[in-house]
Design brief:
single chain, alpha+beta, S16 Ribosomal Protein, Chain: A, 5-stranded mixed beta sheet, 5 strands
Length: 172
């Protein structure tokens, strides 16, 4: 049985990720694997490559043939050089820098502003205060006077038009 170490594609249409698997060479690309020995996420920056070096060495020693893509990944992790006995077994794998927690960023911003997190008990914007009851009482007692224009439902336009018609009739 010819055993290969190859990539098994997973993920969505435009967001692939792969598992590094040991399979019989006659099985389908995404078929049943003998063993999963790692994973590869090419869409992240830098690409995530995690391969169990001990299991990769085991399968390479048993005669499993890596595909071109997996051979390149094994060279990056240094497992291929270790298997061949060449120098450079540490590999050239780039590791993503850990993200700084948001709390640390927040505290750094507070230090830059000149305050500490203990002083942040007060809000930065003032709260809306309830209107005083003494201010509301005179407004409620004052009678509302209707505006003289409010008496006309259409805003006084018909009265002005009627006055224009009367003056035109007197001239004739």
């Amino acid at each position: 049985m010819a055993v290969k170490i190859r990539l098994k594609r997973m993920g969505k249409i435009h967001a692939p990720f792969y598992r590094v698997v040991v399979m019989d060479s006659r099985t389908k690309r995404d078929g049943r694997a003998i063993e999963e020995i790692g994973k590869y996420h090419p869409t992240e920056e830098p690409s995530v490559i995690q391969i169990d070096g001990e299991r990769a060495q085991y399968w390479l020693s048993k005669g499993a043939q890596p595909t071109e893509a997996v051979a390149a990944l094994l060279k990056i992790t240094g497992d291929w050089q270790t298997f061949k006995g060449e120098p450079g077994g540490e590999g050239t794998l780039k590791i993503k820098e850990p993200r700084t927690p948001k709390k640390d960023l927040y505290e750094a911003a507070l230090k830059a502003a000149g305050t500490s997190s203990e002083d942040s008990s007060t809000a930065t914007t003032p709260r809306k205060r309830a209107a005083k009851k003494a201010d509301e009482a005179p407004a409620a007692e004052a009678p509302a006077e209707p505006a003289p224009e409010a008496a006309d439902a259409d805003g006084g336009e018909t009265a002005a038009a009627g006055a224009d018609a009367d003056t035109a009739a007197e001239k004739a």
